[in-house]
Amino acid sequence: MQMRNVVLGLALAAAVFGASTVHEFSMQSIDGTPVSMSAYKGKAMLLVNVASNCGYTPQYTALEAMHQKYKDRGLVVVGVPANNFGGQEPGTNEEIKSFCTRNYKVTFPLMSKVSVKGEDQDALYRYLTSPEANSTTAGDVKWNFTKFLVGKDGKVLARFDSKVKPDSPELTAAVEQALR
Predict the structure, then answer these.
(1) Mind listing the pLDDT tens digit for each residue in 116-171?
(2) 3-class SS of residue 29
(3) Does the pLDDT of residue 177 top 90, yes or no?
(4) Which one of the listed residues 54, 62, 123, 138 is annotated catalytic?
(5) 2-178: what fold?
């Protein structure tokens, strides 16, 4: 019965979103170039909505360290700037990129600024937070630096709130598992 519910859930997600994995979505890089998430097939992804003026902004350091530690094993950290929370990411894409590279030496991919909640929510974030598509990670993004771990197959594996640091034991263990 549980397997039947999973199959029905995936069918509903596909019907609602026209997608059953993250790989079926596209975004724009911070430089404006289209990026198909299918480019990351066979790699695990950590999608993080980021902001430059947030109390959690120092997590950029640990995100970059995670990127460096795991990139050769198949993890891609993807930063997704968003200005949904307290106006903490007001800059342009150029300003955000400059801030990240100058202050945190970020080398992982950054996407163009999007909305991660609300009426203008980006399609990928609608998918990530939808109960029909991803019941275990569903619900509105509540703040900056929420992390979604995606498996090599494009399925959403886990969600970690802002308070969970990138180098925390629970996130590190989940990444290690996703890379197996």
Answers:
(1) 999 999 999 999 999 999 998 999 999 999 999 999 999 999 999 999 999 999 99
(2) strand
(3) yes
(4) 54
(5) Glutaredoxin (3.40.30)
Contacts of 142 (CB under 8 A, 6+ apart): 161, 162
Task: Retrieve residue 102's tokens.
Answer: 């100058």
- Retrieve residue 118's tokens: 């609300």
The pTM assigned to this predicted structure is 0.90
Tell me the two tokens of residue 177. 């598992």
Three-class secondary structure assignment of 100-136: HHHHHCCCCCEECCECCCCCCCCHHHHHHHCCCCCCC
Residue type, 150: V
Query: At what angle are helices 59-70 and 93-104 packed, to 10 degrees?
Result: 80
**Number of residues assigned to the chain:** 180
What values do phi and psi take at 142, rounded to 5? Answer: -95, -20
Please say if 100 is a catalytic residue.
no
